[in-house]
Specification:
Layout: E1 5-9, H1 15-24, E2 28-32, H2 36-43, H3 54-64, E3 67-70, E4 78-81, H4 96-105, E5 114-117, H5 125-135, E6 146-149, H6 159-165, E7 168-172, H7 175-186, E8 193-197, H8 198-229, H9 233-240, H10 263-268, H11 275-285, H12 287-299, E9 305-309, H13 324-335, E10 339-343, H14 362-366, E11 371-374, H15 386-392, E12 397-400, H16 407-412, E13 416-419
Helix pairs in contact: 1-3, 4-5, 8-11, 12-13
């Protein structure tokens, strides 16, 4: 398999690391993307996203000649589709990028080709979307062209390691496709590789993230109820998790990222029976509103300034996709007259939707603020000098939506501290 040419279609948070890891395994890899900035950076041995270890690996692989960016597709032995599948306003999967990728591959298909869909997709997408497009080549799909779905299951911040170490699922449209695609992934995956059909593989990916979403919704509902009852939800979680078969998740301002906040909708988009999944999504999507209400309660002024720390969907990454903090910012700007200032050491100003409110220096963001809201528990915020920051503020108030900061230190510096989920 290492003598095969691999083309990765889509060089985002999954496609580019996959391309680099496969090149490291000894394969010739082409990375295709419509974004010229991505391709130009890649061919300089550079990246425009943040992921530990990726910059060095990409530079090494480009220098070795095994990894190259292309703006026009060409013939290849293996095509791996890793394009986005956004969610539409009516909570359905936008499969237009997947369809376009398959259409782009079509003119270059030849007998023996392998096509893998890695993009997270509703069950049936590989068979119902990819296969009909590829059939227009005149080749026998499953006999002359082998097709499968293989979902990624990696953690941002550990993508390079987990692409190799984590177990993998290969779901082919027929047994021949499954086994052939398994051999491709065996070249770089050290974890176990499990085989099934494409529709089951698609559902596995969705349910992995739906499981987490439902459990986060339980934690968020616990936080809401605890605030109403005068209970500390964090104490409840700590002690309840002493039970050997209980693992309550942690509450927060909402759920973000392209996986947990999106995948559950793909499961139920055409199935009204999915009531528990839908309710969990509504609870988690409603958390920015709960946070906004608490902010208004704390500042007690329509003209107050609120400094929000963190804008990504999770700590220590630059990914803002479906970030609940950005949804909070949008709600504050649309529904209140509050002044909003944002600081995040990880976000790229060029792609940030509220760049005019983004401050490079945290001191500028909190100056004259009536309230600091910790939205994301970035490591950098654990070492802040709140004595200095408090002196810059109009009022020393802090709302910690992650129960992350040192409350004792904040109180010693004169702060009034409120923690999401704590009703006492």
């Amino acid at each position: 398999m290492k003598d095969k040419k691999i083309t990765i279609v889509g060089l985002g948070y999954i496609g580019l690391p996959t391309a680099a890891v496969m090149a490291r395994a000894g394969m010739e890899v082409l990375g295709y993307d419509l974004n010229r900035r991505v391709i130009d950076a890649l061919n300089r041995g550079e990246i425009i996203i943040e992921e530990p270890g990726l910059s060095e690996l990409v530079n090494e692989m480009v220098s070795s000649g095994r990894l190259k960016g292309i703006s026009t597709l060409q013939e290849s032995d293996v095509f791996i589709i890793a394009v986005p599948t956004p969610i539409t306003e009516d909570k359905k999967a936008d499969m237009s990028y997947v369809k376009s990728a398959a259409e782009d591959i079509l003119p270059h298909l030849k007998p023996g080709n392998i096509v893998v869909l890695e993009s997270t997709s509703p069950p049936g997408a590989t068979e119902d979307i990819i296969v009909p497009i590829l059939e227009r080549s005149g080749l026998k799909i499953g006999d002359e062209v082998f097709v499968a779905h293989s979902p990624e299951r990696v953690l941002p911040g550990r993508i390079i390691q987990e692409l190799v170490e984590n177990d993998r699922i290969i779901g082919g449209i027929n047994p021949e496709s499954t086994e052939i695609v398994k051999e491709v992934y065996r070249t770089f995956v050290d974890g176990e590789i499990y085989t099934t059909d494409s529709k089951t593989a698609e559902m596995c990916k969705l349910m992995e993230n739906t499981f987490r979403d439902v459990n986060i919704a339980l934690a968020n509902e616990l936080a809401i109820l605890s605030e109403n009852m005068g209970i500390d939800a964090w104490e409840v979680i700590k002690f309840a998790n002493k039970h050997p078969r209980v693992n309550l998740h942690q509450p927060g301002p909402g759920v973000g990222g392209h996986c947990i906040a999106v995948d559950p909708w793909f499961v139920i988009e055409n199935h009204p029976e999915g009531k528990l999944i839908r309710q969990a999504r509504n609870i988690n999507d409603g958390m920015p509103d709960k946070v906004m209400e608490k902010i208004q309660e704390l500042v007690q002024s329509d003209e107050a300034k609120v400094a929000i720390l963190g804008a990504t969907y999770k700590p220590n990454v630059d990914d803002t996709r479906e970030s609940p903090v950005l949804k909070l910012v949008e709600k504050l700007l649309q529904k209140t007259r509050l002044q909003v200032a944002i600081h995040d050491p990880h976000v790229d100003r060029e792609v940030f939707p509220y760049s005019g409110r983004l401050y490079d220096q945290i001191e500028d963001a909190v100056k004259d603020a009536d309230l600091i809201v910790l939205g994301v528990n970035h490591f950098e915020y654990s070492t802040l000098d709140f004595g200095l920051l408090g002196n810059l503020m109009k009022a020393k108030r802090l709302y910690d939506t992650r129960n992350y900061l040192n409350e004792k230190e904040l109180v010693e510096n004169g702060f009034q501290v409120t923690i999401l989920g704590r009703g006492i």
